[in-house]
Amino acid sequence: VIMGIVETKSSYVLGIDLGTSTSIASVYTKGKSRIIKIEGKEYIPSVVSFLDSDTIIVGAQAKGRAIIDSENTIESIKRHMGEEGYTVKVFNEEYTPQQISAEIIQRIVEAAMNSEDFDSKGKLKYAVICVPANFTDNAKKATIEAAEIAGLEVLYLLEEPVAAAIRYGFNSSKDQNILVYDLGGGTFDVCILKAETEEEGNANYEILAKEGINKLGGDDFDRKLMELILDTQKDQGVSRKKLKEAMQKLKEAAEMTKIELSEADACNVMIPNIIQNEKGEWLNVDVEIEREEFNDRIEN
Fold this sequence. Notes:
The protein is α+β, with helices and mostly antiparallel strands. It contains 8 helices and 16 strands. It has helices at about 60-65, 95-115, 135-150, 160-170, 220-230, 240-245, 245-260, 290-295; strands spanning about 15, 20-30, 30-35, 45, 45-50, 55-60, 75, 90, 95, 125-130, 155-160, 175-185, 190-195, 205-215, 265-275, 280-290.
């Protein structure tokens, strides 16, 4: 009850994929699933930035601030979910991964409640959240705690490969085994699932085998590309240490390069005014990276 007004709980269940690099949410309405748009896009960067101890921004704006205020901007917090004793210190306050993740979830709920394309018919209270297949029990518990901090009740934690298998086998009438290869921003796993169809047309999904690495994903590929770009700049009159001061600019360039190298055999990386040398002159990064170089660097 708020000021004498009874608050209505929405009957909708919010589906959330709380990702390492990006997050996405949807609802099932009128016989189909619908993506909730956040800031005009179908996903939100999983980034939280503190302007001060009381002002927090989440998403694309926060990701943009990572360049100018990396100390107070948190990325890839999912990698630390369930990690005992882990905290991040911002403006002399310590925050757990659950508290940071809760800010992302709250932003998603806020976007859903204010959506012009979807009427929640009350306050969104219930959620199903996707988690990696190889998440530890501690990480799963931390995910539930994050949702509770954000004011949600988690009805179910759905393993990501099961979600993928359900979507792939939706309305299928045959029994089948499905191999799901899930390489995300921060986690990687491979699962084999058995799908058995029931008389009503629904299916039961059983994970037969799973294996993965909690800390391997797109973030690591970005890092390897950053190292590759740094290695090409050794003779530019700027020390490696100084170039590392511009790491966020390098990270954004690496991410774009990675995407381009999915299609192209080579990509030109151009970053103007990345750093000043000892004479005060601004220097640029201008280098071509070949896909073969990238593949060699990430082989391990």
